Amino acid sequence: MTASWEQEANALSEDVGRGWNHFWFMPSSPDDLCLLRIGVGGLLCLWLVSFSPDLVNWFGPQGLLPLEMIERMRGEYKFSLFDYFRTVPGLWTIHAAGLACALALTVGFLTRAACIASIIVFLSYVHRAPMIHGQAEHVLAMLLLYLCLAPCGRRFSIDAARRRRRKNPGDFDTDTGQETCTTATIARRLIQLHLAGFYGVMALTKLAGNTWWNGGAAWWLLARSESRVLDLTWLHDQLLVINGLSHGMVLFEILFALLIWNRRVRPLLLLLAVPYWCFIGLVTGWLVFAFSMFVALLAFVPREWIPGEK
Amino acid sequence: MPPIQENRFSNPGSEPFAWKAGTRSVVSLLLFMHLCTIAVALTSTSPSPLQIRLLDVFRPYLAPLHLMVDYTSRFHFTHGPEEDLDHFLTVEWSEGAEGGQSFRLPTRKIPGSPRFHRLQLLANTAADFARSETWEVEIPRALASYYLNRWNQEEATVRVMAHVPLSTAEVARDTDPDGEDYLRPVYEAKATVFQGEVQLLKRSEALEVAPAQEDGP
Q1: Does ipTM top 0.95?
Q2: Domains of chain A, residue spans
Q3: B38 and A194: CB-CB below 8 Å?
Q4: Cβ neighbours for A20, distance < 8 A, ≥ 6 positions apart
Q5: What Rg do the C-alpha atoms of chain B give, in angstroms?
């Protein structure tokens, strides 16, 4: 009896260990992460550019958010380069450097260094003024962090072109898309788990409120007239549609968090995510958030959908 | 199909993994610790006392990387007009060399733009702070300082306003969504420059902003 229990425990332990190793350490092609790098870099460029007209108004010595106020409010362990560059020329220096890093990340020039520098600059903006950042910044921080681990400059990048031009015999042909490595797997898995976690949080926090249970929540999104891009309040007499939207949103988020791991269901969920995030972006006006969730989906895109993959 | 090449870290032995068992063990431990911190961070939008303690332990790791999620992150999108409203800020003065001026943040020119979104998050934060004696003056004072400095004024009125959405019944009655009944002050103060510093004199207590709903959404 004891021996049988021990055997089963050992078998279970081996299965779990094998599964864990396979999940995290099986070398894989980083091509999807290279595409993700382009998406994240491009989004970061736009995000930084959108600060340009107001940089001094926000962070300048006479700006809307004085550093003394932020230091009182933001809590411990938050670092920002803007704490040290307080003058107007200093602000513009950081901003220009940040844009250069984001651009380098997008085109894949000195990719690893560009990615690390990009996240430092990005977090500097976030910690300089935490109250003007929302869900999108959580997603971007997560993506940038994990891309720092990944060899995301191996394809679709200036680094890859330079490596190809050097043509050293020991180098890999970065055009074939057949290069594999373990850090790509780890980075992809971390992004996937974290993203599924975001979907789970979205669903669970919705279910903590009565409005999502009674089906009225979608209306309260549609009716917020300040921020919406698309006015759908003509649905006011379509109560069942509003109920369906509310329940459908929660259901989609739960299904995504749980079933995105199933290879057969994954393409369907990815396709459903497109109208879902279009709807959220247009109805709430959170376009950057919606776009960042779009970009993050690239971590789940099947290999055969990627150009050059077999 | 061309053969798959392993990179320089690969070990072409019988094991499919490129990393040695010892390396995998160390990395596994690090991954496990990281995932634990992320799990606590993501599930702490309304934290229990245990989660608060765990967050305090993990804060030096999570906070610098902006991995902590709280209720104000609004991943629930909305919990109805009792809890989640759009807000805006206004600053106005009635006298001065150029006559009265009134500013509204955010203006409603480009909803959806990052600039609009940031200003609205600022207004929403100011409304959240209006419930806190410690923080309620911070954003209105910063806003007043910015405009009084810029326009060389001595006195202004600062407001944090809530825009209450219409219910389905109100939309059916063609109610104006921007009517006065739906724009409610959450915080209002008179800002005055005194010895070079802006001081606020609060005019009203934080108000209940949600109207009594007759018939649900």
Answers
A1: no
A2: 27-174, 199-310
A3: yes
A4: B28
A5: 26
